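We emphasize that the prediction below concerns an isolated chain of 392 residues; any contacts that depend on oligomerization or on bound cofactors are therefore not represented. The input was used exactly as deposited, without trimming of termini.
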Amino acid sequence: MRWRTFAALAASLCGVALLGWLVLSQGSGTSPWSEVASSRNEPSMPPEAGPQQVAKLKILPNPLPGSLDAPALWDNYKRRFVSAEGRVIDTANGGISHSEGQGYGMLLAVAADDRPAFDRIWSWTRANLDVRGDGLAAWRWEAGATPSVTDRNNASDGDLLIAWALAEAGRHWNDGRLTDAALARVRAMQDLVVTDRTGRAMLLPGASGFTAAERPDGPVVNLSYWVFPAFPALAALDGGPRRALDWTGLRDSGLALLAESRFGPRDLPAEWVALGGAAPVPANGFPPLFGYNAIRVPLYLAWAGPSERQQLAPFAAAWSNRSPEVVDLLTDTAGDRLTDRGYRAVADLVRCVMDGTPMPDDLSAPSDEPYYPATLRALALIAVKQRYPECW
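Result of the prediction step, given as a token string:
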């Protein structure tokens, strides 16, 4: 969701790493989500369909519900960022709301096992952002503006987060309406997946403005929009021969792109990457920065793990003995230091993955940081509980 906001602020960012995780499970192995696919009476793929078609992404080892076991942190988050109607407020971004924030709020509510909060956030999202008529959410909403939706384009990360939260909520609370809504949103995302010159599936950041027909260097993608830990849950939901997206292919293409898009001496990619040439390059019209938004890349990679040490090594090296910072990838000059606790929580998660360093005790303590780092901190806590409980 944050693509236009951070382009305007000249604060993009990026991440890197080809992660050997989410191991493919071949054959007829079952998963905790098998009952979701079977409840929709969709047949499984026949054995002769080939390994790519029958491969499944493995579910995270510990469930999402209950993984935000920090009541004081969640209560503080709701009080500061979630209105009584269910609008998630970006306090450092003019008080706007966006599809990303609504998706994160719904996901955190499931992780906190808070059905009333989930219902409020989902209800507001459906009433105020689902106005496009194609099953995708408008990405930006502003209080006091007329109309309140000030940009009707969608943001694919926001739709992925909303679909993931709906899928998890439908299963956890045994609510088929939420499961159906998750699947409908996934199927609405079909046109957001395009192919690059090598034939790999690529996830467009939005429905408008990023294709090869719309940009001379296109298609253009945002590396932080691949919400890797969501893919197994959505793949299990979107199963059978009528599946909307090739989740395994999309996962693999994102990892390959991250490996190919390293720039400068720090081996970090630009967040906005153009795929129209012979090799990925920083996209025209966007600052070639590693910074605020793409700090989610190592978060998502570590969360989706398991990983190999070298795959997160550039982040660990960049953040050794200091907080994450914005980096101009063309000049290798540092910009803003990201000192809020939530940004440092992502660095803590990388250290946890790299060498088993325990997460700091203050990770679950309430704070006064703005919406975005507060959200990152809660997500890092969930990632540790789901994937690396030994670090807690």
